[in-house]
């Protein structure tokens, strides 16, 4: 079948939110301690932060980082993590000791060094609406008990944290912090009212789901107080047990984010908050999560060893990179509603950066962020795609996933093209005519593909890195390599 992409006539170009390139960090495994924060490391700066991690996050222009959980936050009390005396506490969620040396002040300082917006997720498990708003006071006021407390802790200037979420997955992904549907809406409404009484222009989120049974009642009760619903997407929790991940199986998941977004938009419309009145924040997303019986549960305890296996650099291949590009493409296609996304997590576990004593590994997914944040133009132009199918058993997906971005005055365009085929190159006919661009003989592009679909980066082995290439254009078509993400640049 002939593969081609055409610009949709008359469709407006939309300036998309760069916040979709955000990240998430949780007090979980070695993401914070021994990850981004490690005073013992030879790479630590004067505050104990890993400089190499900060540099890498600046390289991918990280716009926002959500913290401190995740499920961790459902039993976290922020007051334990501020001030001179830090008492280690038992982290009931992950059943380990948290030293509390990395708390709110350290997080804000780290965000400033990274150059990103802080986004704080509050405790709606064992916490109260008042504890949440006290936290907003601590960050944003100069007066009152908590504003003064921050100043006394050495930070007289308010932090002006704008993004605040009520809870994490309180719909019951984890036993701690779970609420009933009936409890959730009123809990969110009360929390939002208190938080807004401190910071009027705060952007407020609530833990939601692309499921009507949970989210419609939430929106009925608390919709008028919210700016975002926070939803999570992990599309194949079990892949981590395979190493490498079964590539084709991952590719069969690449349409799922699009479907999930459409379902969620339908729920917002039905509740009367469509058209961007309330936006979507995918504040945790990744192809995989580690949830699996082998990794434990609250009753049986956690199998830390098994969990560590999820933290090998070699587990993250081109499958992860291409799924991630397809996820970001789906967000871009719905950029009027999808405003924020946080890859989960940013350091270690299944994140784009893997930290070791002698440096970091930029995993395959890191380079997807690098290409998108440095290589795309600022506006989205809707396109229609005609493409052949890639099949596995009874499942199939289009062989290509494509988005088109352009600059404000229409003089530059960048196509982002995923060729999901594990073995074959495919030709794709591009639309030059609708853009008013003369068909060139060659196009410049940046390609991420590695040497095979299962290729990965590891300590001392950075095999999957973006490469600059020149593509011949024949009859408006270019040939894209197998298992690749390519940015193609067009100029008038
Ligand atoms: O990353 C581990 C957990 O996955 C997070 O704490 C939770 O929010 C998600 O289910």
Automatic annotation (TrEMBL):
It is an enzyme of class 3 (hydrolase). Residues 283-484 form the Alpha-L-arabinofuranosidase C-terminal domain. One of its GO terms (molecular function) is alpha-L-arabinofuranosidase activity. InterPro entries: Alpha-L-AF_C, ASD1_cat, GH, Glyco_hydro_b. This is non-reducing end alpha-L-arabinofuranosidase. It catalyses: Hydrolysis of terminal non-reducing alpha-L-arabinofuranoside residues in alpha-L-arabinosides. Its EC number is 3.2.1.55. The keyword Nucleotide-binding does not apply. Belongs to the glycosyl hydrolase 51 family. It comes from the Bacteria. GO terms for biological process: L-arabinose metabolic process; polysaccharide catabolic process. It holds the Pfam family ASD1_dom. Keywords: Carbohydrate metabolism, Glycosidase, Hydrolase, Signal. Homohexamer; trimer of dimers.
């Amino acid at each position: 079948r002939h593969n081609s992409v055409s610009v949709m006539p008359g469709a407006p170009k939309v300036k998309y939110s760069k916040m979709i390139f955000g990240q998430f960090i949780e007090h979980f495994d070695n993401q914070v301690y021994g990850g981004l924060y490690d005073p013992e490391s030879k790479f630590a700066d004067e505050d104990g932060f890993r400089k190499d991690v900060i540099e890498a996050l600046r390289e991918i222009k990280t716009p926002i980082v959500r913290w401190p959980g995740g499920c961790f936050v459902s039993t976290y009390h922020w007051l334990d993590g501020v001030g001179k005396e830090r008492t280690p506490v038992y982290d009931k969620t992950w059943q380990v000791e948290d030293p509390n040396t990395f708390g709110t002040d350290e997080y804000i300082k780290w965000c400033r060094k990274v150059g990103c917006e802080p986004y704080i997720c509050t405790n709606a498990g064992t916490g109260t609406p008042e504890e949440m708003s006290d936290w907003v006071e601590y960050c944003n006021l100069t007066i009152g008990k908590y504003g003064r407390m921050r100043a006394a802790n050495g930070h007289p200037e308010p932090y002006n944290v704008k993004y605040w979420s009520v809870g994490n997955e309180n719909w019951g992904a984890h036993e701690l912090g779970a609420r009933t549907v009936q409890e959730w809406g009123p809990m969110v409404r009360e929390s939002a009212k208190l938080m807004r009484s401190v910071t009027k222009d705060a952007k407020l989120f609530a833990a939601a789901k692309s499921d009507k049974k949970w989210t419609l009642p939430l929106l009925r009760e608390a919709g008028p107080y919210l700016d975002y619903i926070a939803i999570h997407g992990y599309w194949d929790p079990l892949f981590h047990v395979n190493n490498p991940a079964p590539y084709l199986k991952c590719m069969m998941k690449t349409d799922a984010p699009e479907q999930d977004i459409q379902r969620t938009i339908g729920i917002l419309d039905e509740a009367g908050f469509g058209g961007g009145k309330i936006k979507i924040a995918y504040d945790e997303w990744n192809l995989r999560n580690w949830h699996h019986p082998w990794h434990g549960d609250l009753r049986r305890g956690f199998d830390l060893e098994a969990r560590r296996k999820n933290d090998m650099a070699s587990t993250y291949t081109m499958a992860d990179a291409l799924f991630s590009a397809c996820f970001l493409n789906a967000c871009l296609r719905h950029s009027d509603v999808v405003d924020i996304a946080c890859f989960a997590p940013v350091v270690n576990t299944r994140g784009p950066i893997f930290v070791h004593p002698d440096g970091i590994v930029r995993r395959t997914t890191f380079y997807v962020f690098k290409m998108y944040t440095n290589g795309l133009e600022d506006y989205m132009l809707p396109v229609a795609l005609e493409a052949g199918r890639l099949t596995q058993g009874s499942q199939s997906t289009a062989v290509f996933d494509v988005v088109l971005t352009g600059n404000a005055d229409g003089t530059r365009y960048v196509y982002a093209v995923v060729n999901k085929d594990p073995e074959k190159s495919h030709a794709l006919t591009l639309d030059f005519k609708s853009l008013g661009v003369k068909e060139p003989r060659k196009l410049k592009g940046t390609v991420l593909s590695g040497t095979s679909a299962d290729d990965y980066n590891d300590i001392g082995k950075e095999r999957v890195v973006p490469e600059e290439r020149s593509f011949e254009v024949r009859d408006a078509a270019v040939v894209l390599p197998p298992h690749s993400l390519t940015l193609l640049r067009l100029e008038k």
